[in-house]
Design a protein that fits this description.
14% strand, 7 strands, 7-stranded parallel sheet, binds nicotinamide-adenine-dinucleotide
Length: 272
């Protein structure tokens, strides 16, 4: 069965590169009109992505959005309402990582990572709801919110306590609002996605910073990358496209009975 998103409008955060870019490309290739958002500083990469999507016959546009800024969410959602008349799919993908022993983490760093990883998803849900609700009520398949958590939102890992704290929060935030929206009859499903190690700039950063700390007996980024690959039973890093495939399912009507779930896409890392 071919997945058809041609009636849907989707917004993806942190979509200038990495997993978010693959998600935007994949949703657009299935027919969705995609609002590609990321920091203003990433406008050039985002612009290239939009041009690529349009060249392939898809529909996309870039809007600058720092997910930790409430006024930016308000402006983007007003634009979405005026331009598209509503929103069907929200993908809260933007995220940052902090690699540090907890005893060295400052309050400013704690506030920075929670502001983006948790605050960003909360503000996204808060400001997307008015734009999603009417449309979801009018359509049998309803709306879909997909929040990026992590394998690190299920299991603990050394030097990643701040990141795990934010990703664990996303897991239960997603389940709670999935139940709440069902109870309120909103017809909006909410699920969290839990990637294992995926080959993006984030893993590059983690390889450098963890090996500098000597984590898992490593001393170079290459050694850390090898150690990462050995962390899951499939023995490799995931690709951004493999995550985009899971988002495509959760965004589509094929997942109409799926809400409150935590979808692991991690090569078996959390099963072990
Ligand atoms: N790569 C992995 O191994 C991995 C594993 C588990 C979970 N994740 C999660 O998947 C999601 C995507 O990760 P990725 O690997 O593609 O990372 P990435 O670093 O390649 O991309 C993250 C994107 O978020 C954007 N961003 C950062 N701060 C932002 C802000 N304040 N507002 C808006 N955008 C902002 C960045 O500009 C970037 O485009 C993140 O939520 C991440 O935590 C990634």
């Amino acid at each position: 069965m071919e997945i058809d998103l041609s009636e849907k409008v989707a917004l993806v955060t942190g979509a200038a590169g990495g997993i978010g870019a693959a998600v935007a490309r994949t949703l657009a290739a299935s027919g969705a009109a995609v609002v590609v958002t990321d920091l203003e500083a990433r406008a050039e990469d985002a612009g290239k992505l939009v041009a690529e999507i349009e060249r392939d016959g898809g529909q996309a546009e870039f809007r600058a959005l720092d997910v930790s800024e409430e006024s930016a969410w308000q402006a983007v959602m007003q634009h979405v309402a005026e331009t598209y008349g509503g929103l069907d799919v929200l993908v809260n993908n933007a995220g940052v990582v902090l690699v540090k022993p907890v005893e060295e983490v400052s309050l400013e760093e704690f506030q920075w990572i929670t502001g983006i990883n948790v605050g960003g998803a909360f503000l996204g849900v808060r400001h997307a709801l008015p734009v999603m609700k009417k449309r979801a009520a009018a359509r049998p398949a309803g709306g879909s919110i997909i929040n990026f958590s992590s394998a690190m939102g299920i299991k603990g890992y050394p030097y990643g306590s701040m990141y795990s704290l934010t990703k664990g929060a996303i897991r239960l935030f997603s389940k709670s609002i999935a139940l709440e929206f069902a109870d309120l009859g909103y017809n909006i499903r909410v699920n969290s996605i839990h990637p294992g190690l995926v080959d993006t700039a984030m893993v590059e950063q983690e390889s450098e910073e963890l090996s500098a700390l000597g984590a898992m007996g490593t001393s170079t980024p290459d050694e850390m990358r090898q150690a990462f690959q050995a962390l899951n039973p499939l023995g490799r890093l995931g690709t951004p496209q493999e995550l985009a495939n899971a988002v495509l399912f959760l965004a589509s009507d094929l997942s109409s009975f799926v809400t409150g779930s935590e979808m692991t896409v991690d090569g078996g890392e959390t099963a072990a």
